[in-house]
Amino acid sequence: MTEVDGTWSDESEFTALDVAVDGEQADGEAELAQPVLAVVGRPNVGKSTLVNRILGRREAVVQDVPGVTRDRVAYDALWGGRRFTLVDTGGWEPGATGLQAAVASQAELAMAAADAVLLVVDASVGATTTDEAVAKVLRRSKRPVLLAANKVDDERLLADTAALWNLGLGEPHPVSALHGRSSGDLLDAIISALPEAPREGEPSMGPRRVALVGKPNVGKSSLLNKLSGEQRAVVDSVAGTTVDPVDSLVEVDGQTWRFVDTAGLRKRVQTASGTEYYASLRTKTAIDAAEVVVVLLDASEPVSEQDLRVLTMVVEAGRALVLAMNKWDLVDEERRYQLDRELDRGLVRVPWAEKVNISALTGRSVRKLAPALRTSLASWDQRVPTGQLNGWLSDLIAATPPPVRSGKQPKVLFATQAGIRPPTLVLFTTGFLEAGYRRFIERKFRERFGFEGSPVRINVRVREKKPRKAK
Ligand code: GDP
Ligand code: GDP
């Protein structure tokens, strides 16, 4: 994603599985489901108070000491049914010398990272030289900029508000963050300035969609038969409902599931037409149609390249994953030992997968499949609130900062979980984060928040400190 003003590098897509993402980058729009508003201004003008007012709770920490670094910076806000991420830039104050430089660089970062910027000015003081310097920076912004004239606690101060037109940022919105006066009007203005967020994928209607995939003869049809045979199953057609004929509705463990693209499995046509190309195309189709994928491995045989290719397809597609070690009835102690070795090596890239050992032939442990599917889907649907995410992340980064690259220490400004299905984090940074460090963040993120059975994507939005090209 290239920004108009050329100050961004492209967004680097990243998953724990370091697969080559051939031109199939997740598109930037979907990633930023929730627009970002950054609040900037001098210390003590009331930014934190206003953030609290907008959030409707005392979550951000108001400091009595001006310029004290806050450790939590981003929150989920909701107004008029619209969700957005609210960023308090108070925590960004860098080593820049002098207040003016500090606030100006804060504004630069805000413009780069956010979809809209809110400049807060203390109307009871009027525009200071620092406010003017920041306004000058913000007038260059390609994104909408709103001006809040704070501390307008009563009517008499409205005249002071009008004087702020001079900042050249359009209409000043008078508010009293402390008393709440006119904050609704300001929020209305904010909402209309923010880009429309794409509607979040509706919780899927009807049965959750499952794909059974794996190399030929791994036991896919046997498993489907076992699942639909054992339970009093509803297969292929249900009176009064429309069922895509390639899918099977099967009740497992008290829940109806839609096993997608099972026509080939049921008819057992396979082999003849099953050149590897068509088999792989079929696998891809099934994965794309599913929400959660069961990858079957033949536990009695060495884990093969073909198995790993299927796993890669699932991760690339961003689907929840359950690994079913099938033919467990054929596994003796020696094979089991070997298999552990193979899995250690083969699955390093998907340590988070849900795993079950089953036998589709004997039915052994097949009942463990449904709970595994439920766990993976719950992770796939999970969202960490922005405030919680940033509280955790700032602690992590304080303890283990990103490695210095060409003399610069990249700063992670804030993060949001921009999406679910699959869970997708976006980190807003001032520099490139190495793959190793992103993996570290993912590992710690999983330790803290779980997400078993689901891939987690971590995208980095870098605002590079490139000098601006002269126009
Ligand atoms: P920040 O440094 O910009 O985040 O400012 P704070 O939110 O910490 O506020 C600085 C001081 O201004 C605090 O003592 C607040 O209580 C006070 N303050 C904030 N908003 C208002 C307001 O609308 N009216 C008045 N009178 N005081 C305010
Ligand atoms: P598909 O090609 O993946 O659909 O595999 P099938 O379900 O057709 O199974 C291929 C062969 O493996 C058949 O002979 C099955 O009976 C056998 N098979 C499937 N599951 C198991 C299992 O759990 N244990 C054993 N021993 N054989 C199995």
Strand arrangement, largest sheet?
Answer: 2-3-1-4-5-6
Strand fraction equals 15-25%
CATH class of the largest domain: Alpha Beta
Which fold name is given in CATH as the topology of the largest domain? Rossmann fold
Number of helices: 14
Category by helix and strand content: alpha/beta
Looking at how many chains there are and whether they match, the oligomeric state comes to single chain
Distance between the termini: 21 Å
The CATH architecture designation of the largest domain is 3-Layer(aba) Sandwich
**Coarse morphology:** elongated
Order of SSEs: HEHEEHEHEHEHEHEEHHEHEHEHHEEHE
| Percent range of helical residues | 25-40%
Largest sheet: 6 strands, mixed
Low-confidence stretches: 1-31, 58-70, 230-244, 466-471
Produce a short descriptive summary.
The chain is α/β, with parallel strands linked by helices. The chain is 33% helix and 19% strand. Helix 3 (99-113) packs parallel to helix 4 (129-139).
Name its key features:
Rossmann fold, six-stranded mixed beta sheet, 14 helices, GMP Synthetase, Chain A, domain 3, binds guanosine-5'-diphosphate, elongated
Task: Kindly describe this structure.
Strands 2-3-1-4-5-6 form a 6-stranded mixed β-sheet, with helices on both faces. A 6-stranded mixed β-sheet has the order 8-9-7-10-11-12, sandwiched between helices. The longest helix has 15 residues, at 99-113. The radius of gyration is 27 Å and the shape is elongated. Helix 3 (99-113) packs parallel to helix 4 (129-139) and helix 9 packs parallel to helix 10 (305-317). The protein folds into 3 domains: 11-25 and 383-462, GMP Synthetase, Chain A, domain 3, CATH 3.30.300; 36-193, Rossmann fold (3-Layer(aba) Sandwich), CATH 3.40.50; 208-380, P-loop containing nucleotide triphosphate hydrolases (Rossmann fold). It is built from 14 helices and 15 strands. Helices cover 33% and strands 19% of the residues. It is of the alpha/beta class and 471 residues long. The structure holds guanosine-5'-diphosphate (2 copies). One guanosine-5'-diphosphate (GDP) binds at residues 41, 43-49, 62-63, 66, 90, 150-151, 153, 176-178.
